[in-house]
Amino acid sequence: MSERVYSEQEVNQYLAASLPHWALENGWIRRKYKTSGWKATLMVVNTVGHLAEAAWHHPDLTVSYAFVIVKLCTHSAKGITDKDFELAAKIETVIQWQPGTEGGALEGTPNEDARFKYIKYD
């Protein structure tokens, strides 16, 4: 079954409407997550890895001390497909989740202690 490949204009429109922190760059959709350091970077990498493996759609990652770059493209289709948009949205939802800011029993990491500020939220 062939997958629909989106045009550059369609990708840019979708990203602007649904994934504003992602950008189209050289045939990939790309997002840079800034972190507070190595421990947080590894948490992001492991989270993305788990989601990618569960989805069976694998991004390219660039990993550094205080950031992770995630790049998605459907190689078999030679372009951006729904697989890329769906995995990007799932990654965004999980990485940007901030318990304690939305009510409920989960409090999230302590704000008063810098050791626990892992992700630099947008």
Automatic annotation (TrEMBL):
It is an enzyme of class 4 (lyase). The keyword Lyase applies. Keywords: Lyase. It catalyses: (4aS,6R)-4a-hydroxy-L-erythro-5,6,7,8-tetrahydrobiopterin = (6R)-L-erythro-6,7-dihydrobiopterin + H2O. The keyword Metal-binding does not apply. InterPro entries: PCD_sf, Pterin_deHydtase. GO terms for molecular function: 4-alpha-hydroxytetrahydrobiopterin dehydratase activity. GO terms for biological process: tetrahydrobiopterin biosynthetic process. Its EC number is 4.2.1.96. Belongs to the pterin-4-alpha-carbinolamine dehydratase family. NCBIfam families: PRK00823.1-2 (NF002017). This is 4a-hydroxytetrahydrobiopterin dehydratase.
